[in-house]
Records
---
Amino acid sequence: MTEQALVDFRANFAKALNDKQLRRNLTKAMDSLRLKRKAVFADKEALERLRSVGNAIRRRSLSKLPELLEKLEKKCTENGIQVHWAETKAEANQVFLDIIRRHQASRVIKGKSMVSEETHLNHFLEEQGVEVLETDLGEYIIQLDHETPSHIIVPAIHKNRDQIAHLFHEKIPDTPYTEVIEELNAIARKTLRQKFFAGEIGVSGVNFAVAETGTLCLVENEGNGRMCTTVPPVHIAIMGLEKVVEKLEDVPPLLRLLTGSATGQMITTYFNMITSPRKPGEKDGPREVHLVILDNGRSNILADPELRQTLQCIRCGACLNHCPVYTRLGGHAYGYVYPGPIGSILTPQLEGLQNAGTMAFASTLCGACAEVCPVKIPLTDILRLLRNKSYDTQDSPTAVEGHGYKKNVSEDLAWKGWTAMNTHPAFNTLSTRMLGLIGVHLPRVGPLKGWTSVRTAPKFAKKSLHQLAKERGLSDE
Amino acid sequence: MPDRPDKAYFFGTCLIDLCYPQAGLAGIELLQREGINVIFPQGQSCCGQPAFNSGFPAEARAVARQQLKCFSKDYPIVVPSGSCAGMLKHHYPELFVGEPEAEEARRFADRVYELTEFLVKVLDIHLEDRGKPIKVTWHSSCHALREMGVVEHSKALVRQLRNVELIELQKEHECCGFGGTFAIKLPEISAAMVGDKVADVRQTGAELLLAGDCGCLLNISGAMEYQNIPIPAKHIAEFILERVND
């Protein structure tokens, strides 16, 4: 069991749906992100070609992942980057703490990293007496409000300008109230700038790690990522082990897909390629660069040929932006670090179906996510697969943790009855007639209760199409 | 354009069988008007999608097998639902991978058409509108849109009707929140989605909502009726037949 085994999905969902301000903020933000993506990918054929390229690159990377990771380690080491392997979240956090302690440091500045959210790094370090400051504007905002990211790309997207204005006024000392965006930015910039100078350890994520050159690529818009990776004397980067790509030439198509899908940008303001610490004679850059490579269940996912496609993800967030469920709930309601469609296929695999399996059911399987995924992850197929596994008690070498957790007699019976009705024509005729006769009088309990809370009950026809077709003399060949 | 067949199977879908038989009949009549001999196998039932999407693939396969049996001859299979057609066309082949019926399921899938797709692509139908002027709006079902790719055919049919003004929804391509058992398993999220869809329908000022899938119709019209919004909803087949018959 994990520390979050008690996520009450239904209560979270209800709370989010009742938060009118949240619904307004999300609708506005998601509409805008969708439009921006559409504008930058105006040529649909070109986009489809690019998606195929992205898919091929990611599949190739995963197909030789162990080899590429070894190569990455070798190249990084040659370049002077120290590589650390972490099998678990706890191991990853300990690597950070050891480095921090070795440098007798107490102030960490961070660029955005979802993997560090996955390991709950901030919480761990703060408990050890280390000050951790988020420097990405969105991350900074939610850190001020003691929140977690509600989106993997735009972590404070659930807040609007007014809410941020109040937050800055209340939480940052000597800050007059303002709703002017430029002024709010200036407040954050001024506050953060001092922290950049004082930071002893810089932390960042990794968007792509290139095996052939040992290069860590970092995509960002604010320059805070560059500050975190160049100003402090020590830089620690953390990545999930799936983030490796084979060659430098794999990067441009993925970068284009990432920025276009995420924020509708042709390219971001900053794109950092980090290949070594400061070299002798160089005037700037960190003296030490570390790379922490986290597994945390990813090699299990890799072992299953279908589920493996989950690891193709480049974390653009387009599936969140286009998901009708995410758009109405926001990220916090999911209760785990990765929300939305990608979260709903990744989290049950990382945390176990018994803990997070509900996420795989929180989808209408409308397919909007798979339609926009830049690397063509078949999200709906994987959601369906995880649903199957939720009822599948059979053990196998690649079984997902918690499989079969949902198996129960009443659902088994219901589906057996449904199967019998739909495989025996006489039984089908009978039950259809029965519904036609008594359907209106069915009590509003069980499945009908949820349905009729916002809709009228289905009206069952007196005569089925089967009957009508027979009466009209349609051939039954 | 594929050859014009003499005969075609009609797969009525379970939801039409139970709640919207008139829509099914309208689909059949539209085919008959074009000279198609419509075959309706009485042993047919459901495409199996409810179980397939709910974590019960073995049960879905058992029901799918029944359809393979009933639609075994080499006629096209016409389906008045993008969602059920998507199940038959795209998911049957994967459902029978490694099963004795694998090849049969693939050949079956090749014969599947969504109704409006069949009317436009295969029959090249031309509609003579005899109805009074009306403003309608159209909801695209997710599977008609993304699995079958037939929404443009459906809308092309509506546009053939000269007295019908089609006003598009602002978020035509967004799911209405039905999702089969989703609406029952997570009713609160489903309610939020259909609530927004109803608001979108209202803002068009249309007098009638059209859709090609009865799941969406059941969901959206049920919500509109619950809110006492006097906008009726109709399956496209029923609407077209009324327009050309009037």
---
Amino acid sequence: MALAKRFKQLDHFSLETTGAYNLLPFNFHKLTAEKYFCANLVGEHLFLTQQELKKLVGGTLPTSSDTYLELKSKHFLYGLDSDAAIDLLALKFRTKHHRIAQFTALHIFVVTLRCDYTCQYCQVSRRMEDEGDFDMSHESAEASLEMLFLSPAKSVKIEFQGGEPLLNFELIKFIVETALAKNISHQKNLEFVVTTNLSMLDEDVLDFCEVHGIYLSTSLDGPKDLHNRNRPKASRNGYETTVAGIRRIQERIGPDKISALMTTTAASIEMPREIIDTYVELKFHSIFLRPLSPYGFAIKTKQAAKYNSERWLEFFKEGLDYIIELNQAGYFLVEQYTRIILRKLLTAENPGYVDLQSPAGIGISVIVYNYDGDVYASDEARMLKEMGDEKFRLGNVHNDTYEQIFSADSLLEGLEETLVESVPMCSECGYQTLCGSDPVYHYATQGDVVGKKPLSFFCNKNMGVITHILNLLQEPKTRKTLESWI
Amino acid sequence: MVKLISTKNLLNYSAENGEVYRVSTNASLPSVLRKSEALIISDEQQEIPAGYGLVLSKEPREGCSTLSEDLWHLTDGDVVRVDANRNLIRALYRKNANANFLFVTERCNSFCLMCSQPPRDVDDGHLIEELISAVPLFDPSTMELGITGGEPTLLGDRFIALLRTIKNHLPHTAVHVLTNGRTASHKELVVEIAKLQHPDLMFGIPLYSDIASRHDFVVQAKGAFDETIRGILNLKSYSQKVEIRVVLHKQTYERLPDLARFIARNFQFVDHVALMGLEITGFTRANLDELWIDPLDYQDQLKEAVHILTRAGIRTSIYNLQLCLLPKSLWEFSVKSISDWKNKYYPECSGCSERHGCGGFFESSDLKRSPNIRALTFAKP
């Protein structure tokens, strides 16, 4: 039986014949001899065989094939029956980049550079606890807040950094209260987070955080021996202090108010499982497997040079496998870097992670107000300054206007010169939309904001991580686990 | 099933009195109010009161029009339209119904394979004028009004006028417009809609495939896909609420997960997606062999589609499918969607413990329904 007479068959509406289609822009990356990962400028993607890829580009792909329909659905091509693909691509491109108009989301206040820890890998070149002249003044704080409220961003996060910011808790209180008072007229969504080693945590701090819904973020490198080795403290009880602090916050103001970050040292790299177990034991549902950044003491003490990207990737893969295993055994635990990549890959949104954006995240996603009133394009930019290089110092809150700071040459050039869409190797990379541009990193390591990608730890790391995630997604059970992280 | 039309005995009726009336059983209304009311007179009432626009009696009675049994459900606050030429009375609005739909035109620019209301190219402009005059008689506490056709937006200015009347007279009533969205590909209409600033207006727009030619085939109109896509984009760019509606049948179920992915990637901003079982009426009857598939046979695709949509944060519902055909994981998405005046249950359902949560069937399911309908005998988790 067929359709009633007055109706037309499907053929009547399919205007395509083989070859009668138009290609839209896309990149591809060879995963294996037979499998190519193909992605367009909005992150829609699929896997093709070499044969299919050749046919697609050569205009000989049969329009009746499922591959053709998938390519059409995902806007790799358009046929004679419809050109809505172009409107939709434009829409998706705007969606992926809407954060640019909403700059700057993260404002880092370095309220002091003093610290009670003596970490070998310290990337910010902290100062001794009792050294003077490394605290931010009330005047600098107020001028920084003035600047913050000039940002177009509707949602703004204020992060207190150091040194150890709680050594200058009085200024944190001043900044929070001043910001909230100013915000009555500005009506932004304000969020506060204190990045702290928790050694100064007391009832006053907890009360204040509870009242204002302030989040705390700490460093936890793994089990006791590793943590204390990576993060030495005169009293030799860094691990105990940190763990006690985490538990106290979880109980007192809620488990979602405290998160932890780990940094991978040469000692860490041998023990991914033990590190992850430490997080599980503390009932964290999130972990971020992070390599050392090559700044500050990490360079001085040659900590950052102790493993290469291959070794780090081994660590990452072993860790991620174990995390997936834990999820499948019933404990929900997200690896944050993987989650960022997955959201870029599998959703219409852009998670807005500073290091994985194009244009780069400097200035757009993050800005730093240093203790002395200087303004930097990113946290790494001020790390670089403490090493004597002021390349990404954009100005000073007391001497420069918002307009001068946000149109500083080093910022604009850093952004313009490093767009992944135009940079050698990135421009043709299949992972372009999943990755991003990090001008400060490449300047710090290669003396050039673009850098040579084959020599870049950043590039090697991301190529390896993304390839690994794409491979993991091929296995249905693993895919289901990973999808649950989005 | 509640019948809405009666064609009996409109005696003593003159069209000069107007054509739309609010139903009343109160025979002692102040006389100045009576003209716009249709009185249903009780048998005990000795005298026929003067001044009512229309007097209806359940039993034949001197000086009254007879109300056929189909319309005995009419009660205070309902609104009826009277067509003297065709000797016809139709319920336009029932105060106590769970849904009221305003049928504004029979004309349409699509010709969908499964149209439940086959379009006719007729001059029926009077329909919307009657509705515009009827809306002020509706109860202001009405929760929701539907607008349907045909393609309502083909009426242009008059469609806007209807929306404006609803907004002004029923400011607390949600409005749901069933449209194919094609005319919204022209910005002008969308601008006029946006200007109304209606606080609770939603456009339900069907999208049957991620592939243009497949959608065009289902709606039997070349270029319809592009117009609908641009219509959705225009409506959303003017901050209008949009619901995407997908009727599930043999021509749409296979690519349902692909369509869900397409919606999640391109239209993540839509306000609702409704995945709907087929109603066996209108053109569906003529094309039944090309449309019918036992819903049990597309549950894998349905499950995947719901998973994709909900993971993207899109509010998703399943309409017109019976709980005994859905895997339990989909029950939470199932909505009792069939209007009370057209739903029913079958002998297979007797003894089912889940009937309270199940939408049941269309009257038209007499013709075709899944052979896998059965009574469930467990409690919902």
---
Amino acid sequence: MSPILDRYLTAVKFWLPKSQRDDIAAELAANLQSEIEDRAETLGRPLNEAEIAAILKQHGPPIIVASRYRGEQRTVSFGRQLIGPIVFPFYWIALKVSLLLMFVPRFISAVFLHGDGRTISEFVRALAQVARISLPALLVVTGIFALIDLNLRRFGLLEKWSANWDPNKLPPPERQKKEVKRSSSIGGIIFTSLFLLWWMRYASIPLLVITKAGTQVHFAPILSSLYWPILIVLFISLAQHWINLLEPGWRWLPPLTGIITTLAGLIIIYPLLKHPDLITITDANGLAISKGGSAGLHHLVSKGLLGLALGMLIVGTIYAWQLLWIVWQSFSRPPAAPNGKGIALI
Amino acid sequence: MATQPNSDIFDNLRLELRRGLLIVAVLAQLRREHYGYTLRKDLAALGIDIDEGTLYPLLRRLETQGLLESEWREENNRQKRFYKLSKDGRHILKQLLAELDQINASLTRII
């Protein structure tokens, strides 16, 4: 198989769902190879890499080709189409992450606090309130992606990108396999951005409004002193995901950033482990509810924080090991031989 | 209010007009077995030019809908996926062709 075709198919496979990846790639390879052979037969000679690249360019960029095979038909419409099938998969990931961040913690708290003698109807009302608070965040996510989709269509950005796309710039398959996955970078950007947005507003938003009477759960004031350190750690993490999206070959960056952020995280968490009240629970008038009434929740938060610290210690060790491995590999292996050019190897 | 250029309007309408007809053409051509590339070539030779980025995923979609059957087979030392019309596909094609005849007849009277 021609090296450029191999690189192209590897790039298409990257964007395909795992369950169909090999099947679709094999079919696509057979069709493209038939086209290349057919063209070679017409010309009476094998095609060179530049001619094969022209066929691949006509076929389209890997992400677009894969999106057609994914058969993504889902869209978001409200009178007119707001989010089209190309943007939809990314929107869907963002929506799920938002739900995880906005809805799940409140839901768990609602379930946990249910033990303090509330009736079922109060519990159901609390859940409805959790949904009501989470809904605006989901609308914001939808609005952001509708704006992205609108600009893609209005300025024909996808068409422009497809026209300028160059198959010769695709990295070799072995390098593509080792690169930082684009899905990982995109997921990281979405997750970190949402967390960052939430963190920047945490002081004014209660973690949970739990009853009709207006019981609210807030972070304790000690966390205010950690606002900037945590914000800086989140920005470092966000920058790493953006850099790796543009430079997926920088495999050393995620473990290096991981070591820095986990170390910073441990330093940030250390004073909290000694602090008995990490959350405050207030009634509708903003008056603190006695700790005895929600001892279980306090205990859960303390244990959770200890678990988080231990988890960070383990993750930091794994990052250090990954970084050492990458550095060792880069010094112990000879550089790969360059690919041949202008030779048809079908 | 800004108006869409005429060429854009024509392109959009042409796309809509072609979309359904291309499916009929693909189904009709697959009464005889083909794999992706030869199907595209044969259709092009008959005046129906379908972009490969549209045709190859379309074949898989029609198979998922039960209108096509496929099998992997070796030809010229290479494994290829051959498609042909299924029993359900033949039935649907018959209905679509009858519908097309009716639309054609009506259009002829209108035009």
